[in-house]
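Hi there, hope your week has been kind to you so far. For a while now I've been wondering how a particular protein folds. I'm sending you its amino acid sequence along with the backbone structure tokens. Could you read through the record and tell me how the tokens relate to the sequence? Take your time with it, there's no hurry, and the full record follows here.
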Amino acid sequence: MSGQEWALAAAVVFAGLWSGLLGMLTLVMHRMLGAMDGPGFLGFMRAFLPVGRKAWFNYVCAIGMAVAPIVALVLLWDDRSSDTFVLTAIGLGLVIVGVYVVSNVWKEPHYDVILAWDPDAMPANWEAGRKKYFTINWIQLVSTWAAFGLFLAALISL
């Protein structure tokens, strides 16, 4: 197996794992969280976020989804017009924008807003805050599923 194949296979694995995590979050947990009242939602988030934010799995997948395609692009540099290179570059762009930018600009700051809520005096717009949390997760789901598909297509096109 060539270096390009290893790097793209790793990109597929990391994006696939992250896509699965986001799929479970959006397609399963959103229904559960959507049925909760404000204090119930906040209680869950206060238990979930401190663990989820610092989980080694998150770091490995998030870093792997960027490093593996970067390695593949470096190894494919002499063939920049190939479908494999273009698909990998687009997938990496989706990871950068859909995972890194969305997380750092919207998701993490919104987590801080949610965690600052008082369960005994929920803000009047807490449901809008929950909806924003759901929307951010959907954006990341679509981004990572698309990146996964692009990385897989790039691997197949080698």
About this structure: The mean pLDDT is 96.
